[in-house]
Amino acid sequence: MKKIMNAPEAYTDDMLKGIYMAHPEEVKYVNDDLRCYCTAKKKDGKVAIITGGGTGHLPLFLGYVGEGLLDGCGVGGVFQSPSAEQIYNVSKEVEAGAGILYLYGNYTGDIMNFDMAAELCEMDDIETRSIVGADDVNSNANPDTRRGVAGIFFMYKCAGAKAAQMGSLDEVLAAAQKAKDNTRTVGFALTPCIIPEVGHPNFTLAENEMAMGMGIHGEPGVWNGPILTADELAKESLDTLLGDMPVAKDEEICVLINGLGATSIEELYILSGSVRSILDEKGIKVYRTFVGEYATSMEMAGASISICKVDDEMKQWIDMPVKTPFYTQV
Amino acid sequence: MKKIMNAPEAYTDDMLKGIYMAHPEEVKYVNDDLRCYCTAKKKDGKVAIITGGGTGHLPLFLGYVGEGLLDGCGVGGVFQSPSAEQIYNVSKEVEAGAGILYLYGNYTGDIMNFDMAAELCEMDDIETRSIVGADDVNSNANPDTRRGVAGIFFMYKCAGAKAAQMGSLDEVLAAAQKAKDNTRTVGFALTPCIIPEVGHPNFTLAENEMAMGMGIHGEPGVWNGPILTADELAKESLDTLLGDMPVAKDEEICVLINGLGATSIEELYILSGSVRSILDEKGIKVYRTFVGEYATSMEMAGASISICKVDDEMKQWIDMPVKTPFYTQV
After folding, report:
1. What ipTM did this prediction achieve?
2. Cβ within 8 Å of A, B 230-289
3. pTM of the model
4. Catalytic residue among B35, B46, B57, B147
């Protein structure tokens, strides 16, 4: 295992210490618990948005806490859910008088703990709503049981914008729901990654083998086979995406080409070009293209392609400036 | 070789096509040559800054072309220099009446081609100055023959800021020189990377072996041995950096923790925390910490640590907002 760290069991907390030391003006923790990650720039009267999930996906999840995006994050160990108590402690800190939206990925442990945190909040008369990202088309035929992956970025962006505009809790939820309804993702892995405390990959891919549809924790995909070219990957991915959510000629989408960790930025742009060429042929308009690492699996090689169908309202949300220690857009 | 691409020989140009398709309002190419990479937002009367170098280091080099930073970039093949003609064509496009600063890394091929481009410019009465980044302490005892690596970010930032403030060509050169004089880098690799057209790593590192001081093209370092912990890596690196450029108690520095490609953002923050703890112990003040991928070697695992000693003038330059398709700071 080739990782820069001090000890496998210290991975998450050492990472958090490094983040707080680097960005003390922007983020802080509460309850003497490094894993209760909160904005240091709370804004009175604004709906608070809280996310959470396991470590190992930076900039997901905590990297989106900051101006114009989220207000807090419960941080779990590598690929583990934060506890209900941690989410509740973050909630008490960032709640600013307008209620809280819980916005996170569709994973069993996370759902259980966010739901318990919501019950604890209710006892304190803090109003909460919940919505989960479930954009990974290949993870299930049923949209309700799909996993949440990189497409949650568009939910963060739209909900964060509506909250920054001082929308009500129900309006912020509706913005997240609108982004969810219009976002789909397909991902593929070329290599596994290693959980520090495990010390070896939890699956293997042969030389020249890839896994189409693999999840960001290594959940099995729809096929394993020889590595496709960028053009082939773009075509198969768009066939899947547009098969699940049709986009008509002249409709507009945003595209997110996300690297899973070890894949170079060069390759992401090669893939982005392949995707764009097909969209151009189909007459689907691209409003904005995002390329980079938005949701990773540590040192996994691979990428995901997300599309988000946008109207004028969503374009305005997506264009709003944001600033976190991990992601700045102007 | 596990890469997302269409063909090894198309790697650089497919990448460039993807970039131009994704960011048409920000960058363009001239002379029908994808590798003549120019800002689409030329500003009259401003000193133009041009960089260049091989593909495979994104966001270095072209990723720093944009508002508040650079104006153009000659793009070479993977780990190869751009041609003199390409640099000259970029020069003719972005020159805006105040001359050009060539600011690039200290590599033989690049120096030859930038010098030839400067001669071509001279025949057109375009004034140029040149400066090379040479921040990699472990690459040579003699500062003049050191390689340029991630620390060039601070030269870009300071020169870019001075140019945006409409400084003269000599003032922009002086800003780059000031950043150069105050910046040092130490890097280490945990894995090699693969040049697409070669198809296999050009060196090997055993399981649990790392290379301290290795260059971003795999140039040999000062030692190979078992992987150190983050705390040990931070200590040895800072000993080297501060041995070469002493920083007194209460002096201020910026720190750049740079990932070489495959190393996770989590690990970079673990390393950042280790570096910061040592600096705090020494009483060296950290003005600003940058963590992420600033200069990579495709899918190489590893990191570099740069320090840049800052005074009030440099802090103002480093804090100035910039915006490129790859790097935004507000």
Report:
1. 0.98
2. 230-231, 233, 261-274, 276-277, 289
3. 0.98
4. B57
